[in-house]
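Human: I would love a firmer grasp of how sequence relates to backbone shape in proteins. Take your time, and here it is.
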Amino acid sequence: MFTRIRTAVVACAAGAVLTAGVAVVATATPAMAYGKANWQLTFAGTANLPSTGNSFGFWGWCDLAGGVASGNSGDCQIAQYVHAPAGGGFTCHENIDLTAWTTTTGTGTFVLSGSVAVVPVSVTDLCLGLFPGSSPFAGVNSTIPAVPGHHDLGVGNLIPGAVGVYNATVTQVP
């Protein structure tokens, strides 16, 4: 009986070492599906519209690659929700594949082009209606400043009459 227990303990220990080794390799290997990122953006906002009783929120991140002032690849992941009176609304996730992006001197923001896959598919039109409007899309202003730092963007600037917060953190990757 003790031999079986010792064998089980050795097998568990070997499995733990193998698992730890795989975890170290997985965390040490960077994911570079789009090349080395030049910019990393994170953003979040929540708000309500007192005139309608609707509320909404979003949070997400983007990696922009291919250049410093503009590029030809990137990835964004965004989650969004809308709550409406009497139980209406939806929740969705957007997986955005960027094919081009640029920083603009006029708006000082990131302008994006690409395509979007929405989950669940049943709310694709509603989800795209919040951002970016369609798929594929071109030349959509992200409203995120092309300047490193933490930015309080004011949700009222995004949707007039909305009360809430809209923040972004922008990091230029050396």
